[in-house]
Amino acid sequence: MANCRWGKPPLKINWNLAIGKRELASGNLMRLIVGLGNPGPEYEWSRHNLGFMLIDKLAREAGIDVSRRECRALVGRIALEGCEVKVVKPQTFMNLSGEAIICLFAKHKIAAPDDNLIVIADDLALPFGTIRIRARGSAGGHNGLKSIIAAIGTNEFVRLRIGIQPEHPIIDSRRFVLDSFSPAARPEVEKILGRSADALRSILRDGVLKAMTIYNSDK
What is the topology classification, in CATH, of domain 28-215? Predict the structure, then answer.
């Protein structure tokens, strides 16, 4: 099995959490890969749920279920490219995703989000199917990312964004992201998810910077 290249355990970190000030000791190498989406069958194929879809793909390939309920999220544990990883689907709805993440960090004493957190999100500003990896950055108008940044108090975490930009102007962006992919588009979505899964593995295996050089290009 490959050696995990993602993250390093820090010495110690103090966070002033919304749930109370506490010190988190280092030494726990558990990492979170969080796919953003909305719970419920009506959103299963929505554009806004690409994060959930990618988590489900990783879980299927690992032969596990993402079904354990923790901190208002569904969680599974897998070994991926030498990393011990919790894959997470928050069940709070998109704009409260950060509540589940901060709870999991506190519960499992996971320190330093820049070294232990990857967030998967759709991106309306990127052409459909385009992948962008970033080591840090703003929310870019994405409510799930906004919630996580507000909850953990930093934007210093890895994110993998998958483009959903339409080919024509739209009037109602909220309706567009919550609409489902058409059945005809779903084979293409599966291909995009396959490439996105490869990009995640590259982050773990090769490190963020190398993964960026490989995958931060047009589809």
Answer: Rossmann fold (3.40.50)
